[in-house]
Amino acid sequence: PTYNPPLDLTSYDALQLRLQTDGRIYLLQIKTNRIHQNDDLYQVILPPLTPNQWHTITVPWSDFLLTWRGYVDDLQEPLEPYSINHIGVLMAERKDGPFLFKLHWIKAIKLDELFK
Fold first, then answer.
1. In the chain, beta strands by DSSP E
2. Is 111 strand, coil or helix?
3. Is 55 left (phi over 0), alpha (psi -120 to 50) or beta?
4. CB-side exposure of 31: number of CA atoms within 13 Å?
5. Mind listing the pLDDT tens digit for each residue in 62-92?
6. Is the pTM of this model over 0.85?
7. What is the pLDDT of residues 35-66, one digit of tens each?
8. Taking Cα atoms as reference points, which of 32, 77, 24 lies closest to residue 50?
């Protein structure tokens, strides 16, 4: 989704997702107002998941890499979650055909709360 006004998630350390996939490769991407070029995104490759099972995964802000049109930018700037205006998922394999990606929920979390 696209957020206007942008989300301010500075009180949190990560995104957590409850999802089910077909085992293919997916990217989680975030666009912020801080980005300099229109095609810049912060992206992270989601871990390989057992197909057709529900999984809960946690992605810290520090795992996201600044990219331009899918290429990792040489000059990395950390994702600062105070101006998030888009969160999306991209199927990263360049293969035609059916795919399965079910998102039950996504939320911002504090990492220290995971271990309480």
1. 2-7, 14-21, 26-32, 40-45, 55-60, 65-68, 71-72, 84-91, 101-109
2. helix
3. beta
4. 17
5. 999 999 888 898 888 889 899 999 999 999 9
6. yes
7. 666 778 999 999 989 999 999 999 999 999 99
8. 24
Tokens 């039950």, located at residue:
104
Name the β-bridge partners of 59.
Answer: 15
Q: What would the DSSP string read from start to end of 68-85?
A: ETTEEPSS-----TTSEE
Q: Which of 35, 42, 44 is nearest to 17 (CA)?
A: 44
What is the rounded distance in angstroms from the CA atom of residue 106 to the CA atom of residue 41?
19
Of 12, 14, 11, 19, whose CA–CA distance to 42 is shortest?
A: 14
CA 71-32-114 angle, 5° bins:
95
